[in-house]
Amino acid sequence: MWILFAFGSALFAGLTSILAKCGIKKTDSTVATAIRTIVVLLFSWLMVFVVGSQGTISEITGKTLLFLVLSGLATGASWLCYFKALQLGDVNKVVPIDKSSTVLTILMAAICLNESVSLTRGVGVVLIAIGTFLMIEKKQSSGETKSAAWLWYALGSAVFASLTAILGKIGISGVESNLGTAIRTAVVLLMSWAMVFVTGKQGELKLIPKNELGFICVSGLATGGSWLCYYKALQDGPASVVVPIDKLSILVTVLFSYLVFHERLTKKSALGLAGIVAGTLLMLL
């Protein structure tokens, strides 16, 4: 059953990238992240009350709460980097780098969680790494002169996303997954709004176009759905398998980036995408 939740996470995560990109054409990415987090927070706490896990809050241990908070901080940092990278670069360039967190997560899961890495999984890791590299090397479209700053933000997103998975796996071991997600989201909310005020961008809230605000909110709902599926899958399944499945969201992202933004893959990038998918499927064996 956890595999279905993992694939659900991938679907919603892929939609999140496209919806978020539509919502940050003119809106500052940090402000957009803070607004999205409000939607995710409301959605996650709604699910807590739907499943009736709010009564177990008092049962959460100090260790579990600590790792949930740390996971939330890592998520917040990953989000801020990811959506800044999306604002500066093409979806087809940013997403593959963010998905490279799979390789780091698998290595960290082996070291920190003692999850075994078989020969098949090892080959899968290599294919994912090679495929990611090929997609990163995607040529710029004609006339494009964007700064390479997006690359550093995308790399930061990948590193923090890896930490999120490992810390989240530890943190949800003693708490119902929906409740764990809601607590983590509250941490992300505080962090993202702190960044808005620290950078002095609160004045830009009044300047957000209505259509972009709509996309930001809907992307928040997609994120909420992805998170709930992701942490339910993490709670029941191994992180070294759940994370790669979640990263298959790149297929959804590539499809919609072509349909919505007309971003095309080169032959080299398509080969890289095939490598990532093949490596991910090997991780399921």
From TrEMBL:
The chain crosses the membrane at residues 30-52, 64-86, 106-136, 148-170, 182-200, 212-233, 239-261. InterPro entries: EamA_dom, EmrE-like. Residues 1-136, 150-284 form the EamA domain. GO terms for cellular component: membrane. Keywords: Membrane, Transmembrane, Transmembrane helix. It comes from the Bacteria. It holds the Pfam family EamA. PANTHER family: ACYL-MALONYL CONDENSING ENZYME-RELATED, SOLUTE CARRIER FAMILY 35 MEMBER G2-RELATED. Belongs to the EamA transporter family. This is EamA family transporter.
